[in-house]
Input
Amino acid sequence: MSSILKARSALAIVRCDVIMRQRRVLLCHGELSGSPRLQMRPLHFGYTSNAFHSSAVASHGSITRPEPGTGIKLHFKDSKGSPLKTVEVNEGDDILSIAHEHDIDLEGACEGSVACSTCHVILSPEHYDLLPEPEDDENDMLDMAFGLTDTSRLGCQVKITRELDEMSVTLPSATRNMFVDGKKPTHH
Amino acid sequence: MAPIKLAIIGSGPSAFYVASRLLSLLPSTSPQASRLKIHMYDRLWAPHGLVRYGVAPDHPEVKNCTHKFDSAAEDPRLRFFGNINIGTPSVIPHTLPLSLSTLMSHYTHLLFSTGCTVPILHSALPPSTYCVPALSLVHWYTQHPSSPPPPPLERLSHITLIGQGNVSLDIARMLLTPSSELAKYDVPAPVLAVLERSAIQHVSIVGRRGPRQAAFTTKELREMMNLSDASLVPLDPALLKAPADGAESLTRQQSRVLQLLQKGSRNKPGTTRKTWSLDFFRSPTGLILPDPSLSQQATLTLAHTTLDSSSRAVSTGETSTLSTSLVVTSLGHRADPSAAWYDPALGHLRTVGGRVIDAAGRTMRNVYASGWAATGARGVLASTMMDAYAVADVILRDAFPGEDIQTVPVVGVDSIDEKALAEDVLPKEVDVDSIPPEVEAGLRDGRVTDYEGWRAINAEEVRRGEAMGKERERMGWQEVEAFLQSRDNSLTLSYWEYAAGLFDLIK
Output
């Protein structure tokens, strides 16, 4: 009897060990938060320790940073035009991924699939002119962007090339009428 | 620092954008972090609101926003409780009721992200078998827990949509796209079965004003133009003329809409089995129901309109009729009128700068509203996000009066005038981790869902979908309850076997 029990419990331990290990692996990727009964606490992304730090979506960085001095320079600016950060990037990177890599507060709700306008940016005119025209789907999304200008693009659709060196990328301003009811005809 | 123990009613994009913003502005490594707790409540058992129950199934990219919501929910300071109906009468039979006053007694801060859930009806078109609100169709094809019955598409040849916004176009597109093309998307199997049997030949989309006033956006119009098996009935060219010099200039959106309409649909009329039309400058005046023994078609009576000097629709005196199998009104939504601080004149909650205001104009301390609950049913995901971030700023500004919190450049929101405050409805001190005992009990007996349970359900829906070659296959509440119960049982079993095994080793 005891040998059967030992075998059964050994099996149970092995199986549970696998389950525990699986759960631990899943926890590292932040997928499971643990059932109330087992009271496991999840791991989560680290943040910087500034008191009020507005951080972009924590990403695992799908792009790499070039060796300092070798990359293409982009100047990110806030909605008032004040400098935020100058970064160096590789050819082929898109502005949304670049912003996330460098903790710039640019959202990408649809994650680059041209289904929203949250990554709307305003480019320096001389560089805007060098870019190929937006496709219909990008233009459709830009129609709905806040603070649209003649040099607006969706950040996720702009791929950096060498000739865009020293381009300014300005974050658009939110509408001043954010809290005013009913004045601005928008769509849903 | 006084705690911010925030209850958010609603778990759609607005709720999650406010929550994720607060969590990232008070990161878990900061000294104030542990004083922030966010508990999110939803009357539906699944989170994410309209992203799950409003976005059309053939627009899956929009739903990528839920990845950010999943990240936010990994923060242990955020908890989600689903299937709990707070305050207002429930439209879903299986929800756990919880009074607003009970909820409020456990929290220092309250945010309404409750959206606009009640369809605006047309005074000339009362609901009947022949006239339904668009919401009932959207709830049908997303299998919303209120479980509206399917439209009898196998008996309908002609559908008339009243209203020319994106919801109308979504429904038209769902009805005119071959079901074989929809099969790979998140269209539940029972819905697909009804669509497969559909006898719809024509969809009329009626609006009381013209192309320049239509509320739909270019993307959705372009999708209609590109339908594979339907064509647009050509529009009267007079409707599509550009405005005369000196008249008000067109916005970029308006110009592009006109261009699309001028170009017409990809398939020319006469080449497709199905057709659709945009019936501009028509306003319904009534719906004559048929004698079912004689006909299946109702008769919609329409007044012809034109624009007055303020661009409002006014009747010309001309009328016409339209024979149709079903009228669907798609005229926007308002918040639930029985909701606390609802203003009937606005159709949503009364707020100033995100702060809830009572009927006498006094600010409710620590009570906020975001998204459509605060602004009315207008705006796409981007505007919802911007509004949510602004409300998060206001919440923190009110909590930390000394700090200058300006992460969203918005003007016009002052600090609270202490003299203009109503009596407090929320306590100043609470146990930061407690939840109402009803919720505690609901979690134990499986009536209340949490985010961890949602992740498992989500994975299971995707798994079932993969087996069928589609994005996901949705589960209903009974299936969800059973699934979570059996999952709990097997976890408990493993736990007990593990414990038994340890015990065995020790002895």
Observations:
- Chain B has a mean pLDDT of 94.
- Chain B has 15 helices and 22 strands.
- Chain B has three domains: 4-117+334-464, 121-331, 481-506.
- Chain B touches chain A through 78 residues (CB under 8 Å).
